[in-house]
Amino acid sequence: MKKSLLVMSGVLLLSTALTACGSKQDNNTAATDSGKQGTASAPVTIKVQGWYTEAQGNWNKTVEAYNATHPNVKVVYESMSEKGDSQEGMKKLDLLAASGEQMDVVMYSSASDFAQRVGAGILEPLDSYLKKDNIVVKDEYKLDPVVDGKYYALPGKMIEWFVLLNKDKLDAAGLKVPTEWTWNDYADYAKKMTSGDGASKVYGSYFHNWKDYALLAQNNDMNNAYLVKSDGTENIDNPRVRFSLDLRNKMENIDKSSVPYFEVVSQKMAYRDVFYAGKTAMLATGNWMVGELSQNAKFNTVFAPYPKYDAKDENGLTEVGADFLGIAANSKNKQAAYDFIKWYTTEGIQTQGLFFSAWKKADIAKNVDAILASGKPDQVKFIDKTSLLSTLKVNKSTKLVVPPTYALQQEKEFLTQVELYLTGKQDLDKTIATAKAKIEDIRKSNAK
């Protein structure tokens, strides 16, 4: 594996040392030792740690369902963020790893976050557990999160992207619910749904400060929707990325139809709140929002496929992601942790009733029904099930790219250049050229 810690924080360096110490005792054995099951009088307690709030994740109900059928184990969920912020959660998980506190089942929200923690030695390989259960991951799941030939996690919720639209604002503009459209069509919709001025202004669009929103048209490239290739070389000097950044600049700084980047970061905007408050008519986002809408929707909401780069492209192509659930390398109850992960990523996520499953045996229509049934009736009534099912059925996932373990460093440098461009401090050519050079420097510094 390539060196991955040269530019990591002190937290991750410390956690690497700690987890390395904890993993010297038989690091990849199918837990017949440290994963012993509890007894009826003294059940094993394992912690599941993620960033979801209870409202976002319904985790208490989920672990209670598992505990009810597994009396020798007590699963406890711990949220790492009161706001449900995944990046805040990642930082706190790193601190836990560095401190040596109990960790058993840990979750990561993206392939790059997951890959970096693999490189830091925080996660236990799952191969021996999978072999014991005769599980072939690529046959069992829609995603194959293999890293250098080994498995360190299984996919929980499967993330595909689409566009949420405020139906009331759509109707007021005299626009139809899109069933197939391009990013240029999206920009046209945004202009037509932008209204008002100052504090009362409603934008047609909102883009968050994640890398996904800097790669709008790259995200539906079937072969590689990410900013680097699996070997760490750049994947940004191409027409799709240039188009994406140019589109954002026009919408945010010229047409004024999308919330300006400066406002997003300076006001620390939360994309959910912007949409729920009716301050944007459209939001390109992931399917986790269906479960959140079932709890929080405030107006009629319809769904449209992720926009295409070119009108000739296949409809519904979307980047794919997941929550990655793994065993902490320093867990003293690895077998119990693995058993919960296996249950959750198959049956459990359907019990949870909020997310879409990466399990191949899951049924989309039943998945939707379970999510809506778990919601609040006064909020579920605002969700247009017809457009939701239509969108989900045309969605087609691009290939999952599990990037090099140092990819988060490359993301950071890329987004630094994107910020300079969107705030008018440099042009597009310099943005791409500088980001390419930074990405290549990081790749070389992590080479063997």
UniProtKB/TrEMBL annotation:
Keywords: Signal. It holds the Pfam family SBP_bac_1. The keyword Transcription does not apply. The lineage of its organism: Bacteria, Bacillati, Bacillota, Bacilli, Bacillales. It comes from the Bacteria. This is Extracellular solute-binding protein. Residues 1-20 form the signal peptide.
